[in-house]
Amino acid sequence: MHIICNVLNALVLATVATASSSGCGVAPPIPLGQRHNATLSSADLAINNRTFMYWLPPNYNPAKPNPLILSFHGGGVNGDRQADQDSFADPFFNQDHVVVYPQGLVAGAAGVEPITVWQGIRLLPCYWDDVAFVLALLDHLERELLCIDPTRVYAAGKSMGGGLSDILACDARSSARFAAIAPVAGSYWARLDPRLCSTPDSAAAVPVPACPGKRACPMPVMAFHGRNDTTAPIGGGPITGLDCMPPVQRWVETWAARDGLDPSSPSAEKLPSGDNATVYRYGRGDDGGEEKGLVTFVMPGDHVAHDWPTTVDYGGTQRVLEPGQGPANFNGTAMIMDFFRKYKTP
Question: In the record, which residues are listed under signal peptide (predicted)?
Fold first, then answer.
């Protein structure tokens, strides 16, 4: 399978890799370590003038291709808020990865206040295509704006943004462009009326969204979901009053199976942070067998709600707190950075 996936991904990435050097060898377009808002120009009217925010790390090197993280905000917020939460744009956690925060569009439904959203939720029109936006943005970043290594492009996100990272990994147009994904408190839309998943039994039966376009080779996945999340419930069920989501454990096990791993026997490691925080790693990783942790699920704590697991105060101060003072007792961002560094697109 790895030979097949290497060939397929090489075909997808060949054009990108050849063109990506056009952003190298020129001075950085913005000061390092500062957030900057920008607008994407495109001949596609559905994409033209869509916006994003980006941040260049202290070790950004315009002469050498740099790794890139796309981080997608949750519903109702924006890239600035996502950057406050995820701390990817903080040198304390990240010295070398470019970070880009695409901006969602505003949509509403009957009886629901319009908010910024990403595709996936069932009430959006069928032509809504954030995957096309992300791919156009990636092309712009790699071919024109920055010096990016196309084999080290990663997707992360919170809530709806986490759900979009899952969609990107499952869409045939985009799956081969990402080396790994890391959804946090993800909204995994089943596209069902929430009245169909309102009881414990019906919630447990919600199907995992299909993944028809996953690339041939395994997709590394690190997911986080708090046990006290009532917005995107870890046990599945109604989400935002507009849709249903499956139990997160079954979603994780499905990803393990997609990647050729045994979904029934992960290793379990309790974190020293307490609150029953546990890391589940799928894959043996012995004697050249399945890689341990290729799919990793982190349950950050019994009391962690719909939050990015962090000890950082993301109310705007961006200071690291003592355990017990933030939404969680450890920093998931550090774990994600370590996870991303392990993988390149084959």
Answer: 1-19
